[in-house]
Specification:
Length: 305
């Protein structure tokens, strides 16, 4: 953590309180030193005084945000001004939060913890869909296995997505991924409410975690809703003829079917999982079975063991 303040008493006050809460702290006496230390140390959070000589806090925040090496660093502004205009300027410069001087240790620590929590949650989300990514997926599955909760893991991805991307480009491909993300989230919410979970593994791969008894209905409904919206993803000529043409490496046109969905279902209904990898392996195997079926389809594991 980097504390930037030209007032040594304030810097020391902040340092002592942060260290007492278990944080590692480095102090920078001005903006120029802060920029150098930020590049060198890559701190998770910068607490940045607004009024400093040479470079003020607004300029330092803008430079941190403008450098790819520090653009994701969290920033809290320390300011003696309570004016709305200064708050707006601080936030528009890239600050995540601000604290008005004088402040007490409890407020300081609460804002630091809140800013770090939000930043960590954002880093665990897929930037394309806003859904939890692999870190959160692993945590969720580990928790359910450790607590011996009954659950079903649904693993979904798209058939012929590469051909779609090659034909229509990545912008429209991203829209397809976003659509699938919305559909998975809708179905989990409708089926499970807050007790369900949906995550974006990456690319066109998504997982859903819900009650075993709801799994197959959810998989079937996901396939149905995707197929219902599929015509909107294509130009009319491609939707009408039921395929797209993409040139192979030799320049020969190759026909590919329209997008469809494959969903694999692994469940604790007939078996017990002791590791995340086991559940994912079974769901992946079932997804491969679904891919061998025509159109959008799901396959559920009903084996015991």
């Amino acid at each position: 953590m980097l504390v930037v303040d030209d007032d040594p008493d304030v810097a020391r006050f902040v340092e002592v309180n942060l260290r007492s809460a278990g944080y590692a702290v480095t102090i920078a006496p001005d903006g120029e030193v802060a920029l150098q230390l930020a590049l060198e140390l890559q701190p998770e959070l910068v607490l940045l005084d607004v009024m400093m000589p040479r470079l003020d806090g607004f300029e330092v925040a803008q430079r941190l945000r403008g450098d790819p090496r520090t653009s994701s660093t969290s920033i809290i502004m320390l300011t003696a001004k309570a004016l709305s205009a200064d708050k707006v300027l601080g936030l528009s410069s890239g600050a995540d939060d601000y604290i008005i001087k004088p402040f007490d240790p409890l407020e300081l620590l609460a804002r630091v913890k809140g800013t770090l929590r939000r930043a960590r949650e954002m880093r665990a989300l897929s930037p394309l869909t806003g859904l939890p990514g692999n870190i959160r997926i692993q945590e969720e599955l580990r928790r359910r296995i450790a607590d011996e909760q009954p659950f079903a893991l649904l693993y979904a991805d798209l058939n012929h997505f590469k051909a779609y991307n090659d034909h229509y480009g990545f912008v429209r491909g991203d829209r397809v991924i976003q659509l699938l993300g919305r559909l998975t989230a809708e179905i989990v919410h409708e089926s499970e409410g807050p007790s369900g979970f949906v995550g974006h593994v990456g690319g066109d791969d998504f997982i859903m975690v819900l009650a075993p008894e709801a799994a197959e209905d959810a998989a079937a409904e996901l396939c149905r809703r995707f197929d219902e919206r599929r015509p909107l993803l294509y130009d009319p000529v491609d939707a009408d003829r039921g395929y797209v043409e993409v040139e192979d490496r030799k320049g020969t046109p190759v026909r590919f079917p329209l997008l469809s969905l494959a969903v694999g279902v692994a469940s604790t209904r007939n078996r017990r999982f002791t590791h995340v990898g086991e559940a994912v392996e079974v769901a992946t195997e079932m997804k491969q079975h679904a891919k061998r079926r025509p159109g959008s389809a799901y396959s559920a594991d009903r084996r015991s063991g």
